[in-house]
């Protein structure tokens, strides 16, 4: 599973402060730590309270690229901020994200085609997030079809069924799993799937345990990627182990030997 490091997000107080004060050191440190721990992309989100999201995103992109060569996942609902960020990315990036709403799809898929960017597509629209897998999959279908019309192929897409906290939406968990299974039947090649893993445990106790268990359950349903805490060693170990059990890595014996040696 592809881990997209979640930590450079203004939702976290230290990152919000670093963005406000343009303190590059904090961002460099999180970029390096997440890469060292196995992240394959870095999510960049200026946070909900940024007064100047475009300038903040431009700064985050430049500063993160000083410390890491990983591709970036530009996470914002402000498409001006994403576009400004894309122009500064040294390698193809991921756009996070677009819902199944006509005007937004038009803007985002045009940008993706121009910049050769991957796109996270949300299984939601103007009416919100459907509860049933069936309706989530219908929105995914709409996103895949619209992307295709803009020249963005299904394998450039990551469908996000949208994970909600289990303490307020316990009945959504199974629907999310079922959505992930069905997405693989949508097209050939199919789109990929992604979740915001830490969402599932927001406001709960024992957060890390909930995140780890959800991650391996979702992997068994075909999950390809997660925006997650790459610095949680137990999560990374659980993911590596699930990869063996799902026969996703060749040379399993030698892999286990390496794993045992830490
Ligand atoms: N889908 C997509 N993108 C996303 C999400 C998603 N981006 C943002 C988010 N969800 C994924 N990233 C996070 C990052 C942090 C947390 C949850 C998801 C988190 N933060 C602590 C909290 O809210 O309790 C912050 C507290 C602190 O300061 O320590 O849990 O679903 N496409």
Question: Can you describe this structure?
Answer:
Helices cover 48% and strands 15% of the residues. The protein has one domain (2-261): Dihydropteroate synthase-like (TIM Barrel), CATH 3.20.20. It is an alpha/beta fold. The protein has an 8-stranded parallel beta barrel, surrounded by 5 helices. The chain is built from 10 helices and 8 strands. The protein has helices at residues 13-21, 24-36, 53-67, 79-88, 102-115, 133-149, 173-183, 207-220, 233-245, 252-260, and strands at 2-9, 41-45, 72-75, 94-98, 118-122, 157-160, 192-196, 225-228. Helix 1 packs across helix 2 (24-36) and helix 8 packs parallel to helix 9. The structure holds (6S)-5,6,7,8-tetrahydrofolate (THG). (6S)-5,6,7,8-tetrahydrofolate binds next to strand 1 and strand 4. (6S)-5,6,7,8-tetrahydrofolate (THG) binds at residues 6, 9, 11-13, 45, 75, 96-97, 120, 160, 163, 196, 198-199, 202, 227.
